[in-house]
Amino acid sequence: MEVFWYLPTQGDERYLGTTIGRRPATYPYMQQIAQAVDKLGYGGMLIGTGQKQDTWIVATSLISVTERLRFLVAFRPAIMSPSLAVRMAATFDQISNGRIILNVVTGGDTKELAKDGIFLDHDQRYELTDEFLTIWRSLMQGEEVTYSGRHLKVKGAKLQFPPVQKPYPTLYFGGSSDAALQVAAKHIDVYLTWGEPPDQVAQKIAKVRRLAAEQGRTVRFGIRMHVIVRETTQKAWDAANELIQYVDDETIAAAHRRFAQSESEGQRRMAQLHKGERQNLEISPNLWAGVGLVRGGAGTALVGDAETVAARMLEYADLGIDTFVFSGYPHLEEAYRVAELLFPRLPLQTPAIALSQQVASTFSEFVTKTDLFRPQPV
C-alpha cells in the first residue's frame, strides 16, 4: 500500500464555503507542505491542475527542496503536443532522478476547457487522449514515430534522451465514462477512481480489469479521496461537521447546479452520492460526502479514529486498491496528523521516515507558536 498527499495549488482552507482561515497558495506555504510530506514517509504527492498555478513549474521548483518525494504531475493531452510532453516528462525524470509520475487529465468541464481553447466534445476528447498516449508511449520507449490520426499528427518524432524510469514514468488516469475506461484499459498503469462506496468501486475495478485483459494488459488501482482521522471517532465526526459549518443552503444549491452542467461522469456520480442535501452524508460506513456539497472532483472523506479508518482502507485494498491519494483541510496540519495516526496501522510500501515522538512534538510546538493558521473572527 502507498499513501499519497495533495498539494493545494489553488490555495488551502480550514473551513469550506467561507474565506475564514483561507490560505493563499504562496510558494513558502507549498514548500512547507512538500517538505513535510517528504519527511513523513508519503509515497508521493498529487499536484492540482486546472485554472491554478502551473503544475509543472510548481513541481519543478520543489525538486531541490525535497529528497525522496515523487510528484504526481498532470499533463493535459488536449493542450499539449505529445512530443513536447515527452520531452518535459523525460527532462523532469532526469533532473529529479526518477521522481516523476504522471496524471493524465482529459478534462470534463466544458467551460473550463474553453478557457484553454478546447472545444471538443466529451468522446472526442477521449479519442484525442487515446491518440496522444499512443504517440507518447512509443516515443518514451525510444521509437521514431510517424502517426496520422483524427486529432494528432507527427512525422519522424523521436526522443533524443532517455528517461530514468523504464519504460517510462508510471501513468495515472481517472475517468468513469465508457470512453474513459477504454483509454485506461489500453494505456494506463494505475486507474484512479474517486472515493465511491466499496461496492461501486468493486464494479468499476472489475470492468477496467476485463477491458484491460481484452487488450492483453493488467492495470493497478488507486483511489482519490479526503480523510479526517482523529484520536476518537467522536472527534473525527466533530471535525467533519466543523469543516462545513459555514456552508449554507444557497452555496450548496449553486454548487449542485454547477455540477449538473459538467460533462464528467465521475462528477455526476459524486453529486449523486449526496444529491445536494445535508442529510445522510454518511453514504457508507465512515465514508462521508460532505466535501462534495460544495467542491467539485473527489468529494468524499473517510472519517473516524485511526483504527477504523485503517480498517476501511484495508477493505478497499481487498478490492484491489493499492494507492490512496488523500487530502485534508488544512493540508499542512493534516499531513502530520494522518502520518502520525494512520501510518503505524498500515502495510506501507514506503516505510515512514519520521513518525517519532520528535516529529509529534515539533508539530505541536509549530501549532502552538503560530497564529497564521487560526480562524479569524467573522
Automatic annotation (TrEMBL):
SUPFAM superfamilies with a match to the protein in the record: Bacterial luciferase-like
Assigned EC number: 1.14.14.5
Gene Ontology terms, MF aspect: alkanesulfonate monooxygenase activity
A GO biological-process term: alkanesulfonate catabolic process
Tagged with keyword Flavoprotein: yes
Domain Luciferase-like: start-end pairs: 1-322
Catalytic activity: an alkanesulfonate + FMNH2 + O2 = an aldehyde + FMN + sulfite + H2O + 2 H(+)
Coiled-coil boundaries: none
Entry annotated with the keyword RNA-binding: no
InterPro entries: Alkanesulphonate_mOase_FMN-dep, Luciferase-like_dom, Luciferase-like_sf, SsuD_RutA_monooxygenase
EC main group: oxidoreductase
Entry-linked Pfam families: Bac_luciferase
Function as written in the Swiss-Prot or TrEMBL entry: Catalyzes the desulfonation of aliphatic sulfonates.
Sequence similarity: Belongs to the SsuD family.
NCBIfam families listed in its UniProt record: alk_sulf_monoox, PRK00719.1
Record-given protein name: Alkanesulfonate monooxygenase
Gene: ssuD
